[in-house]
Amino acid sequence: MSEAVATPQAEPRFMRAMKALNDRRMAAMLLLAFIAGLPLGVTLGLLNAWLTEGGVTPSTIGALSLVGIGYAFKYLWAPAFQTARPIKGLEKLGGRRSWLMVLQALMVAMIAVFAFADPESNIAIVTLLALTIALLSPTHDLILDAWRIEVARSGEDKDLMSALYQFGYKSAGFVTGFFALLIAARFGWTAVFLIVAVFLALAMIGTLVAPEPKISERDQSKRSSFLPSLTERISAPAIAAVSIGWLIAFGMIGWFILNALILQTGASGGTFVREQGPWIVFFTVILPAVISAVLVFRFQATASEVDLRDAPASRSNALLGTLFRAIFDPLMELIQRLRWGALLVLCLALTYRFTDAVWGSFAYPFYLGENFGAIGHTLDDVAIASKFFGVIATILGSLLGAVMIAALGRMPVLFIGGIVAAATNLLYADLAAGAETLDWFLAISRLDVPLIAFAEWAATIQVDVTAVDQGQRMARLMVTIFAENIAGGFALVAVMAYLTSVVNPRFAAVQYALLASLSMLIGTLGRPWLGELIESHGFYTVFVITFWLGGVAVVLSALEWFRQTRAGTEDLILNQAE
Q1: Would you state the pLDDT for residue 100?
Q2: What is the pTM of this model?
Q3: What are the beta bridge partners of residue 538?
Q4: 102 CB contacts (<8 Å, ≥6 apart)?
Q5: Are 358 and 548 in contact (CB under 8 A)?
Q6: What CATH architecture applies to the domain 19-215?
Q7: Using CA atoms, how far apart are residues 69 and 142, in angstroms rounded to an integer?
Q8: ∠ at Cα 321 (320, 322), nearest 5°?
Q9: Complete DSSP assignment for 446-488
């Protein structure tokens, strides 16, 4: 008679996740994510507040914000970091950690130099510093993402490290927002940039704590690509055409930055967006997509696994393969799988975050400025309303979005997110016009009572928020920012979930990088035009225009929802990518 053997009960997922916290990988993840958030907060946040305080005009700020274009195109150099090759002299750190350490050290130096620059008299130097940081930072993000994926040992590790990444990244926002603005109001901008540089330098201990990924060269080198199915006679002209288009687009952007900020020839941001913006979108998005469709449908290209360690016949072939994997592989797979639906995916990626991406550079000029309908708050006001309560609202909006996706599904939440993200622009329009509607809402809801009381309490602890009238103004600002950040966090979760759902796991790294980068492109290109529009028509008109432009994403979300419903599935990857 045999005895039954007891099967050990699987340990609950929550307990496994809690045990995983007792691991140096998790401490390193938190510190490295904190580092990743600091440069973006400096170049797209503190820099604009500093310029506004220095009297720099919105049109100049809009032109300067183009330096962030590196975040929109970082997927182009992602294949260069597919494998982990250590930097010479830092072999003991390993491939991933050596690159992280060098990039972090360079960013510490650049941010520290910011402390001694003068934006009013040396805008060219400020531009070059910001451009350098905006190229180093997305490169750092690429390597950090690779490290995070490679050191994860289980699904619980991936989930936990993703959560820690978000927490660390948001924590950096408190440093470059809330604390930085309070320090700037008391000790000046030199102290702010030096303190941020010190924070980044101290957090570099995360790179030393982080273990180097234990991943074989063969595993790193495996890649699915369409290139082997095409002859060089077909692939080479395709790559040449797109590469020339990219060079023309980057040349247009670089020439405008050179004239507007370095040579200061008075180049018009509005003219740049109207005349060159469509061509930049054509060369960087439309042309590669059209050629990808031709390669898929006309030349019947198919994907197969390749080993990147196989030596190419020549350097030109190596360059050809790298460019093809960066530009065509993610687009071709998307087009082959979704066919005409890929057009909707690309349009949604380009437009969904427009209102958020284009507005971000002008938040500080609106909050702190005195002209064009700006509302003239103090650094303390903005620190409390935007960089403390606003960050909390973003986190709450993200949580709300995640819950609603679980309850309603991805596409309804994407549609709702587009609506609320556009609608909150009308709150800012009302604020710019005198806040008549906001005052009515505050009076009806009685929210003005606790918020005015908060302003009076803040004055007693020597925070620069004074008087009942100022308390009313703070109440308007806090309600507007809280609503906008709730909507922004909600919409961000929705579009991230949507873009993740259309990504094929075989092309995950480059394909997601492509779509996520495109989501910033239109907003980034639109900033110079918006800066001039603010100066000519005021903030109120701009907020109304961005509300209507946000409606484009709403319409596209509805069309994509209908398309997926008609196809009988929302998760296209599960049915078609395998």
Answers
A1: 92
A2: 0.70
A3: none
A4: 87, 90
A5: no
A6: Up-down Bundle (1.20)
A7: 15
A8: 95
A9: TTHHHHHHHHHHHHHTT-S--SHHHHHHHHHHHHHHHHHHHHH
Which residues are within 8 A (CB) of 4 and not within 5 positions of it... i.e. 6 or more apart?
Answer: none
Q: Output the pLDDT for position 456.
A: 62
- Tokens matching residue 234: 């077909």
Residues forming beta bridges with residue 223, ordered by sequence position: 306
For residue 11, is it left (φ>0), alpha (ψ between -120 and 50) or beta? beta
Residues of the chain with CATH 1.20.1250.20: 19-215, 339-578
- Report mean pLDDT in 10-residue bins for the chain, 578 residues: 46 50 76 89 81 76 72 70 74 85 93 82 79 87 80 66 72 83 85 92 90 63 77 88 87 79 68 78 85 89 72 64 79 84 84 75 80 80 80 82 79 90 89 85 76 63 48 82 87 79 67 73 74 84 88 90 73 42
Going by C-beta distance under 8 Å and a sequence separation of 6 or more, which residues neighbour residue 195?
A: 180, 183
Q: Which pLDDT score is estimated for 3? A: 46
Those residues with Cβ within 8 angstroms of residue 568's Cβ, 6 or more apart along the chain or in another chain: none
Q: Would you tell me how many other CB atoms lie within 10 Å of the CB of residue 1?
A: 2
Q: Spell out the residues 6+ positions from residue 400 whose beta carbon is closer than 8 angstroms to its own.
A: 486, 489, 490
Distance CA 334, CA 344 (A): 11
pLDDT of residue 163: 63
In CATH, the architecture of 339-578 is: Up-down Bundle (1.20)
- Residue ranges in 265-409 assigned as alpha helix (H): 269-271, 277-281, 287-297, 315-338, 341-351, 354-359, 363-368, 379-384, 390-408
Q: 324 near 243, Cβ under 8 Å? A: no
pLDDT given at position 256: 78
**Contact between 21 and 164 (Cβ < 8 Å):** no
Q: Which residues contact 539 (CB under 8 A, 6 or more apart)?
A: 362, 366, 372, 373, 374, 428, 429, 432
Q: Determine the 3-state secondary structure of 225 from DSSP.
A: strand
